[in-house]
Amino acid sequence: MNQFSLKRARFSSTLRRIAVALTFVVALVSAPLCAQAVSSQSKTGAAESSSAQKLIQPEELARILQSPKGGGPLILHVGYRVLYLQAHVPHSEYVGPASEPEGIQRLRQRVQALPRKQSIVVYCGCCPWSKCPNINSAYNELRALGFRNVELLYIADNFGKDWVDKGYPVAKGE
Amino acid sequence: MKTKALATLAILAVIAFIATRHWSRPTGSMRRGNAVTHPLAPDFSLTDLSGQTLQLAHYRGKVVLLNFWATWCAPCRSEIPRFVDLQNVYDREGLQIVGISLDDDPKRVHAFYQQLRMNYPVAIGDAKLAEQYGGVLGLPVSFLIGRDGRIYAKYAGETDISMIGREIKSLL
């Protein structure tokens, strides 16, 4: 092997080593990001699979609200007044925390006269989806009352992050 | 041969250094800045659970951790014991934690305060106060306020207590 070929072989070998090292480091850097992505996917997956609840994503509801056709579902806020007053989905009605007897009572009173095929969206947004004390109670109560067209607005973290910060329409006050 | 090995190691070291700097960036976003990036924390005056006046301006000169929470918020309930610990550890160095509950029912807050042996003042807040702080549209939310009364960090969601401890120490 002449000098040139030898140098070329050594250079290739060094390049190979650097490539392996770079691959290792890139894998190390990407691992936490992948874990985060899988975790957020599995959160959504868990919410969807438990008790076969129907979820509606924020962007979809925002699209319905902004549609020139008008109409749309009855939207009920089943969370806390202090959060509702600061910002809520336009045209949504405050019912109150569905984790409390008074909230469930108000929910019943609001829907009792409605046809059972009424389309209803309920939401809270107080805290992360898996920790919300209100959303499942509201859903179960509506289903028990015979409503079959109920969807839960999926708010992964909170209403501020998943609705307001995304620029979706907002109303304030009562 | 040795030179090439050293060169490879050097490249690895640089990449690892850059990667760890990226990971260690605090999520509370403590950054040096100016009055725009560190605005003055809006002052307020409330009555705390013991009936005393709780005014934020009275704590100027201390590092304040202002925590918005509620008894119905599960992540809030799990982080409060850690705040109690932080208050114990840094009390003499000038830390003051202040809790603002967004509950409707003060009785629940009283009961919770006693049950968790909270060692810092707590008052009941409202939507108006929450809006002064840019809107509290999910709980918990905490603000780290320096001795100069400026906001140095905002923590949305349950906090990483070791990270927040480090940032408190850096301001004390």
Average of the residue pLDDT scores of chain A: 84
CATH C-level class of chain B: Alpha Beta
Q: What is the mean pLDDT of chain B?
A: 87
Work out the radius of gyration of chain B.
Answer: 20 Å
* CATH level 4 superfamily of the largest domain in chain A: Rhodanese-like domain
Q: Would you tell me the structural class of the helices and strands of chain A?
A: alpha/beta
- Total DSSP E strands of chain A: 5
What best-fitting shape of chain A do the alpha-carbon axes yield? elongated
Count, helices of chain A: 6
Task: Give the strand content of chain B.
Answer: 15-25%
End-to-end gap of chain B? 51 Å
Task: Walk across the major sheet of chain A and give the strand order.
Answer: 1-5-4-2-3
Net shape of chain B? elongated
CATH architecture of the largest domain in chain A: 3-Layer(aba) Sandwich
The CATH class assignment of the largest domain in chain A is Alpha Beta
Corresponding CATH superfamily of chain B:
Glutaredoxin
- CATH T-level fold name of the largest domain in chain A: Oxidized Rhodanese, domain 1
The helicity of chain A comes to 40-55%
